[in-house]
């Protein structure tokens, strides 16, 4: 019985590590800073990453990965290269002001 428990524990840990590694390759374009965008997206360096953050600041959160193509310097080819890495979810709400 102890051997079976050890086997299940090893299997669980393996799956947990694989899931964590997979999630690490993804980047939320609505919350990531410029350094994270530049490090995570193929064909996006510091200048383009700053342009993404500036666009997001001026226009609000992205609604889709395709909307990245509206950022100066980012084309549909860059979006396609990175589509599997991009997560688009709502930006966190701003905290309520202290009373």
Detailed description of the structure:
By secondary structure, this protein is mainly alpha-helical. It has a domain of 61 residues: DNA polymerase, domain 1 (Orthogonal Bundle), CATH 1.10.150.280. It is built from 4 helices and 2 strands. A two-stranded parallel sheet has the order 1-2. Helix 2 packs across helix 3. The longest helix has 23 residues. The termini are far apart. 15% of the residues are buried. About 6% of the residues have low confidence. This is Competence protein ComEA.
In short:
The protein has 99 residues and is mainly α. The chain has a domain at 27-87: DNA polymerase, domain 1 (Orthogonal Bundle).
List keywords for this structure.
DNA polymerase, domain 1, 4 helices, two-stranded parallel sheet, mainly alpha, 99 residues, 52% helix, 2 strands
């Amino acid at each position: 019985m102890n051997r079976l428990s050890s086997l299940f524990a090893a299997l669980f840990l393996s799956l947990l590590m694989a899931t964590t590694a997979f999630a690490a390759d993804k980047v939320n374009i609505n919350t990531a800073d410029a350094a994270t965008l530049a490090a995570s997206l193929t064909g996006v360096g510091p200048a383009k990453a700053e342009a993404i953050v500036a666009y997001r600041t001026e226009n609000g959160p992205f609604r889709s990965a395709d909307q990245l193509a509206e950022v100066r310097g980012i084309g549909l080819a860059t979006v396609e290269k990175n589509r599997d890495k991009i997560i688009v979810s709502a930006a966190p709400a701003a905290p309520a002001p202290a009373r």
